Model the fold of this input.
Amino acid sequence: MMSIPALKNQIRKSGFYIPFTLYFLLFLIAGFVAYKWLNSNLREDADAFSDIFRLLLTIALAFAGVLVVLALASVLISFFYFTWNRKKGNVVFKISADHKAGELQHKQTVRLFMKPVIKPLFGFIKLRLQYDQSYFSDKFSLLENSSRKFFNNTLEGTYHWPLPQIKEYHVQKAILYFEDVFQFFSIAVDLPANSHFFTQPSGRKMNDLNVAPRKTEETNTRIEELRKVEGEYLNYKNFEGNDDVRRIVWKIYAKNKELVVRIPEIMDPYASHIYLYATFFTTFNVNGNGAAEVPFLNYFKVFTWTVYQDLVKRGFDVRFIPDHEKQAPNVADEQQAVKYRISTSKWQTNNELRTYCKTSDASVVVIHSMSDPQQVQEILERHGRDISFVFVKLTDSLKSQNPLAWVQWLFVQHEKDDIEKYRIGWNISPLRARVRQNERVIEEIIGKYQNAVVS
Done:
């Protein structure tokens, strides 16, 4: 038996294919009421005024009927033209994300191309996109090129699509609508599509980050300032009889009753690479939690991209190490590849911080309110002087005083009602108290280290 949400979704999808619009129903109702009212006010006894008025009323009714028929005919001509070319295999439909235009206009821009297709006389061609299997965009018209000719069988233009999440979207189908000039009729045609694109995180301001390279992959470029790098894969080893007792790490001994010593650092004249780690590992089960899956995740992605962008602008050769294996598609440059990896990341519970972060290479590690405090403390105790931590307080994304200040790009902005919905849901969530406590613990831990930055 179909569930109520599934039934509602099916009814909604069926409504996409109704061949007439609400405007047409309102027109029919208004016309019928007006005709009945005007006709009832005429006197029953025949006179010249009544006859002329009935004639004018009949002419007006006939004229309205002709307009409706012409509007329907123009829609049917465009529809049959498209259907005929589709059966012959002549239809070409392409959809892609225009990242360059999106960056310039600060909007998620989708570019569409279709041929051959003609508009109804003075009418419209609109589209609706089905994405991620069960989601649909609003019905929209393309922003077409101003140089379009009067008669043109090519539809080409862009659409600024306000999407709620920073992620990769998959488009499975386009619904093409042929509409007349009065928008009385709207005949829909399904058009298969196989396209995907990702929404991009924007940058924001953050506190200054004290960071230094710890590794290089090539030794053909010498740097001016010597950088400290680890002498071996691990920073520590078990204490041996010939080791200097002054290098014993007493904090580790107090905790684990193990004598370990810090491995001597060496001065590498070629250390020039910044290795950036951003962990999406969470100790909490956030499946189904709207606040954690949308505003929290968006917020963390924005900060991760901000850290990367800040390091690149400062002249470092940055290596971003993702905690998932999804490969970036062929993109123009490395920064676009990093954007893709950040945008497509999700909260995960498999790749822990202690196994994901290679502490011998890491220069910057970005953590968040749902990270494991114990693992953060372990790394800080061993490498707190060498690794800079950026702590992102996820709950700040729902602050009531300015919930949208952290992002400026339209496609990752929410409507005010959506933010309020997430905030209300989060306030009554049983996860809220646990995450807030976890956040306070992590903030207290990293507050003891000079290289840590709190967002």
Remarks:
- The radius of gyration is 31 Å.
- The chain has eleven helices and 18 strands.
- Residues 217-234, 266-270, 401-417 have pLDDT under 50 and may be disordered.
